[in-house]
Each structure stands twice: as C-alpha cells, then as structure tokens.
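Subgroup meeting minutes
Present: P.N., E.W., G.H.
Scribe: E.W.

1. P.N. recapped why we're keeping a running log of single-chain structure predictions: easier to compare across weeks, and new members can see raw inputs and outputs side by side.
2. G.H. added today's entry (203 aa).
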Amino acid sequence: SPQREGAFVSVNLGGLAETLFESELFGHVRGAFTDARTDRVGRIERARGGTLFLDEIANITPAQQARLLHVLEEGVFERVGETVSRPTDARIVAATNADIRKLIGAGRFREDLFFRLNAVEILLPPLRERRDDVPLLARHFLARFVHPDGRTLSLSGSADRALEGYDWPGNVRELAHVMQRAVLLAKGEQIEVADLRLSGAES
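Output recorded in log:
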C-alpha cells in the first residue's frame, strides 16, 4: 500500500529452529553467542517501514509467542546480546493453515497474541473450492518452471480437465509441485495427464 514503501520481508516460522528464532527475527550483535562473529540485522529491523510476513505462525512455541507479543505490543525489540531497545514500524502479516481458535482452546496458542495479530482476517478457501483458479495458477507455475530452458510447453485439454477435477489436498503448494514435475516429465510440446501423476487421474 502507499503507506508502506519499505521492504517486504518474509520468514517461514515452521522451518525455523527454536534456537534461531530470536536471532533470525531480532538480529544479534557480535559475540552474543559462539558463532556470532559479526552484527546481524534481523527480519523485523529489515522490514521497518514495510511489511513482515510471518508464515506458519501457529508453529511457534509459547515462549516464542510471548517474545513476539512483546514486540507487537511495545513496538520495540532488542537484538540478541544487546540491551539497547530499537523501534520497529513494520506491518505484520501472519498466515497459517491451522485452526488457531482450536489451538487457543487447547492451550497451544496465546489468545492475546491472536487478538493482536487478527486486526484484519482473510480466510482463503482450499483450492478444491476455487476450481476456477486452478488453470490460472497452473499456467503461472508452468511459465515459472519452463522458463530456464526456454522450451515451448503447454497443457493439453485433458490435462487441463484433470487439474480442475482433482481435489488438491495439498492446495497451491501441491499444484506447484505437480507442475514442476510435469515440466520435467513432458516429452513433447504438451503436458499430458500422465505427466501430471495425479492420483486417480486417467492417462
């Protein structure tokens, strides 16, 4: 948006080791721990004036949730090994495919953090409920994966129908994987149903 002209910075919290959480998000100073040979700017600092995208937010531990909540509430953070508080002005966008309200009920996600993050909620239905999006997304991924070798490759009509008829339990990530594999397997100038390797699809 015009109000956010800074960088867009993303981090996958699901793939982030607990020991790296604070260093990755908040940064660290030289000597903060054994391998900290130089100062490092964290993701929150890099996103100042812009947007910080926290993917897989439901995967962080209660201790990590508390540290993140403190930053959101106070608008300041400290690099690991530093006592100076630094201001942050990043817009936070968080995403998850988990049912956060169920996690709150089970005591696995802080309700106060949920309310702090949930200023605007956007619910995305699964891909099987958005079948009209499948051809557009499939062609987007096809263009991405075919680009490096410069081939001309398209989807056959039967492949198109198979993609639209599939239920996509893995949603967009699965579609991206299927298209990448199909590009590798296709022998001619068209991707056929057999190249998609979809469970239950007829070749």
